[in-house]
Specification:
Layout lengths: L10 H20 L6 H8 L3 H7 L3 H10 L14 H16 L2 H11 L5 H27 L8 H18 L6 H18 L4
Helix pairs in contact: 1-2, 1-4, 1-6, 2-3, 4-7, 5-8, 5-9, 8-9
Length: 196
């Protein structure tokens, strides 16, 4: 018996990847409300029926596209050097903010009140990034590198300036910026903690 073996990840996988990438680019550019299936198909280089057939619901397409790229948000390493790990984390965030996938996520956060499905996806993505930071903060606390702190507030203090500098686009975000931010936040956290 002879037959043609199907290759895993063949044309169908390639077409799906092209559609998801096109969706992310368009959401990053136009927001969720602004993109159309016809534009997705055109940008992906496929017929629009390929988009409709795989994702009859526009929200499902956006959600799957966003979830494909969770790794672009970055994570926090544990090298044993808290300062370096946090500086590296901020550099990953800054680099990620230049990617269409992260810009699409930012656009999606502005539209979460319009779609429960998108809200769930955005919440899941942000929770995963928050969990990575929490794990690193917990390790730092256990090693006495940090006092017990509100890790959510710590995360906002660390990452907020990165978003501000990058999103304003007035100048590039540098490693020196990341180092200054981390130094100020760590000094503030350590200085405001009451003595035991």
């Amino acid at each position: 018996m002879t037959g043609t073996a199907r290759r895993p990840g063949g044309r169908t996988a390639r077409v799906r990847a092209q559609i998801l990438a096109a969706t992310v680019e368009l959401v990053a550019r136009d927001g969720i409300a602004g993109f159309r299936y016809e534009e997705v198909a055109d940008r992906a280089g496929v017929h629009k029926t390929s988009v409709y057939r795989n994702w009859p619901d526009r929200e499902e397409l956006v959600v799957e596209a966003l979830l494909q790229y969770v790794d672009d948000l970055g994570t926090v390493a544990d090298t044993g050097d808290l300062r370096r790990d946090l500086v590296d984390f901020l550099m990953v965030i800054a680099e990620g903010l230049a990617k269409p996938t992260v810009r699409a996520l930012e656009q999606a956060t502005h539209a979460i009140h319009e779609s429960p499905a998108v809200r769930r996806a955005v919440t899941r993505i942000l929770q995963e990034r928050s969990a990575a930071l929490r794990r690193r903060v917990d390790l730092a606390t256990a090693r006495c590198e940090l006092p017990p702190i509100d890790y959510a507030l710590f995360g906002e203090m660390i990452s907020g300036p990165v978003h501000l500098i990058v999103n304003r686009g007035l100048r590039p975000f540098t490693r020196a910026d990341a180092e200054r931010i981390v130094d100020v936040v760590l000094a503030g956290v350590r200085a405001t903690t009451p003595d035991a």
